[in-house]
Amino acid sequence: MAYDLTDKLVIGISSRALFDLEHENGIYQSEGVASYCAYQRLHEDEPLLPGTAFPLVQALLGLNSLIPGRRLVEVVVISRNSPDTGLRAFNAIETHRLDITRAAFTGGEPISRYLQAFKVDLFLSREATDVQAAIDGGVAAAQLYAAPADYHAPAGQIRIAFDGDAVLFSPESEQIFKQKGLEAFIRHEQKHRHKAMAEGPFAKLLLRLAEIQSHFRPGTCPVRIAIVTARNSPAHTRVVHTLRAWNVSIDEAFFLGGLPKDQVLQAFGAHMFFDDQEGHVELASAVVPSGRVPYKGGELGGGKRRPATRKRVKKDDAENASQAAKAQPSTT
Q: Are residues 299 and 180 in the same domain?
């Protein structure tokens, strides 16, 4: 019988999101594909340091040892690398003793078409184009920022934090705020406070995590989930009613009313934080691993999404090789 992924949390991840390949990406950018490929071959047995998503992936894979005979999580490396240059990532996986056995190396071709084939629930990458394509294709995805300096993942528990609007929930309410202002937003949320919001791009991921939580007795669950949102009273009411409608219990919620999110996230000890706003992600990424969730189609409320130009966000050119270089693309 073929192996079934449908009952598991499946994480798709690029090699540059899993490992620190910034030096290698610099070689690709400055010297081209041939130099990158030669460097990867020459150094393929040298260990790679952890990347932004490494602590989260390592912790999630640890769930598989908690229930005898049951795998809860699978991780698949999905990369634009060629199989030849991708060998270094698999060597690093073995060195770090990560329980990852599956990969897709597309040789420069777009990644998004393979996410559904691997039943991916969450795709993590440093490359904005691939993340946008995943979101447009209906897969939860985030563009990761550089890993924070001196970050130490909390031991014994996986902690994941989400923004609300345009991440867990649909962007409808945020669109009202952007188009009509705060007062219109508050009136809308009060009027619809007992009406559940529609699902956002990360709703199905939240439900999958809640299903994992259901395998453990209260007080013993190794997965802890928080919502960290700019909403405050009275707009918090609709969040609570939406989660009730979804039959999901959030462990912690922070309604900040516009306060900065970074200190709360640091205190929470997030393995990963997901938000749609560049400003929030940039601030948070200095203290916890963070990823930006793009809007479907790249726009919200008729306004174009601002490009990721801040210094902490680097376009993963090594994972987005030009058409001319597809025969030997670099990737992460």
A: yes
Report residue 32's pLDDT band, with 50, 70 and 90 as the boundaries: confident
Which residues contact residue 73 at a Cβ distance below 8 angstroms, ignoring those fewer than 6 apart?
8, 9, 10, 11, 60, 61, 63, 64, 212
Q: How far is CA 65 from CA 72, 95, 328, in A?
A: 9, 19, 38
- Same domain (yes/no): 133, 221: no
122-175 tens-digit pLDDT: 999 999 999 999 999 999 999 999 999 989 998 889 999 999 999 999 999 988
- Whether residues 183 and 50 share a domain: the answer is no
Helices (H), the chain: 15-18, 22-31, 33-42, 54-61, 83-95, 128-136, 172-180, 182-191, 203-213, 236-245, 262-268, 278-284
| Strand (E) or helix (H) holding 225 | strand 223-229
105: β partners: 79
What total of structural domains would you count in the chain? 2
The CATH number of residue 208's host domain is 3.40.50.1000
Residue 264 is part of which domain span?
158-303
Residues 35 and 101 in one domain: yes
**In whole angstroms, what is the distance from residue 143 CA to residue 274 CA?**
9
SS3 138: coil
* DSSP code for 6: T
Long-range pairs for 284-288: beta carbons < 8 A, 24 or more residues apart: 285/145, 285/146, 285/148, 285/312, 286/148, 286/262, 286/312, 287/148, 287/151, 287/262, 287/263, 288/148, 288/151, 288/161, 288/262
Choosing from 20, 121, 130, 163, the catalytic residue is 163
Does the pTM of the predicted model rise above 0.85?
yes
Domain contains 332: no
Residue 4 annotated as catalytic: no
Q: Are 290 and 272 in contact (CB under 8 A)?
A: yes
**CA-to-CA dists, residue 99 to 10, 59, 61, 102, 216, angstroms:** 13, 11, 7, 10, 22
Whether residue 3 is contained in a domain is answered as no
309 within a domain of the structure (yes/no) = no
